[in-house]
Design brief:
Distance between the termini: 34 Å
Strand content: 15-25%
Number of strands: 9
Number of domains: 2
Structural class: alpha/beta
Order of helices and strands: HHHEEHEEEEEHHEEH
Shape: elongated
Length: 202
């Protein structure tokens, strides 16, 4: 069992600086964020964080396992043991952002409203999704592009569902008539995933 106490002790000791992060100069900001990541590494290597923009009600920190399901329990352990600190909210896993997204990964830009998807069913693993995504200009055998498509799906439905549900992913060009070819607009994907989970859990 990993010990979360040291991480949260450091966070509380640096709470004032973290709260005023936007008022620090760029070098001090980066140094503080690097130290936060270092403390997170000390707790469990492989975890990352995303700090949201401040709002009148506070600021959110999202802890992620970057899709590594072996580390999911560590993310949950960390957030379950988070202290109650005014102005801060601590969240486990990257949250779903829904549809009509524009995602940039490496040199690629993905617009969900210009993409399509198709479920690839497997009799051997009916509880796992196989997904084919049709892209406007796919590059054949490009791992970075495939990762970018995965990152886009993750942004749509969240880290937990993306990691636990999608077992296979590939890409193809958009057919002349994608709907007739059996594809659906990618913006339908979040609703499809909710439907899939309901069917699975029956």
């Amino acid at each position: 069992m990993h010990d979360t106490d040291l991480f949260w002790k450091w966070f509380m000791e640096n709470n004032e600086q973290l709260t005023m992060l936007g008022d620090l100069d760029e070098q001090k900001q980066q140094s503080l964020l690097d130290e936060l990541q270092s403390q997170l590494d000390n707790y469990c290597e492989g975890l990352t964080f995303e700090m949201g923009e401040p709002t009148p009600s506070g600021r959110t920190v999202i802890f992620s396992a970057e899709g590594d399901m072996d580390l999911f329990r560590n993310v949950l352990e960390l957030t379950d043991n988070a202290p109650d600190i005014d102005w801060w909210e601590f969240v486990a896993f990257k949250q779903p952002k829904g549809k009509d997204l524009k995602v940039t990964f490496d040199k690629y830009h993905f617009e969900t409203k210009k993409m399509y998807f198709m479920q690839l069913e497997s009799e051997e693993e009916p509880d796992i999704l196989g997904i084919r995504v049709a892209l406007p200009n796919p590059v054949k055998d490009d791992d970075d592009q495939l990762v970018g498509v995965y990152v886009t799906l993750e942004a749509m439905i969240g880290e937990f569902d993306c990691s636990t549900l999608i077992g296979y992913l590939d890409t193809c060009p958009i057919p002349d008539d994608p709907i007739k070819a059996g594809f659906r607009p990618l913006d339908d994907f979040p609703d499809f995933v909710e439907w899939f989970k309901q069917q699975r859990d029956k």
